[in-house]
Amino acid sequence: MSDSLQDRPEGFRRVTETLATLQHPHAPVYLDVAARTAQEAADALRVSVGQIAKSVIFRRKLDDAAVLVVTSGDKRVDEKKVAAMVGALARADAEFVKAKTGFTIGGVAPVGHATPPVTLIDRELFRFDEIWAAAGHPNGVFQLSPTQLQALTAAPVADVVQAG
Q1: Which residue of 20, 32, 80, 160 lies most exposed, with the fewest beta carbons within 10 A?
Q2: Phi-psi domain of 141 (left: phi exceeds 0; alpha: psi -120 through 50; beta: other)
Q3: pLDDT tens, residue by residue, 20-55
């Protein structure tokens, strides 16, 4: 890496440090292009869109907690399935996402949150041996396996996507 970590955005640094602390074998990569959507990330990494572990944040109505659903990039989260597992949900706007996670939308990582969210992992990610997740900034990504994602987050794997 030509420039140093301290030159990178705060969210990217936080995820890099979290992954190092957790002894994850793959350091985050800082892309030359922003990958705010699963398709943009897949194009930049030359992988299938399903291999992108996209982070979707909801607001739990009961206690205003952030609910993070890490889902396969080619799937859509079924809000009713998630609500049945964690309680009634509301939309999370950009301000809520930033306040609760410390990340901006398009760069929400599965680890390194300001406040640990309620997390669910989409079982569809297990179709792949290798997946890529956001690393705290729209230009940041890191490689992992679905099993590593589960270990890093200690989150349950569930059916959280729309049929189809």
Answers
A1: 32
A2: beta
A3: 999 999 999 999 988 888 999 999 999 999 999 999
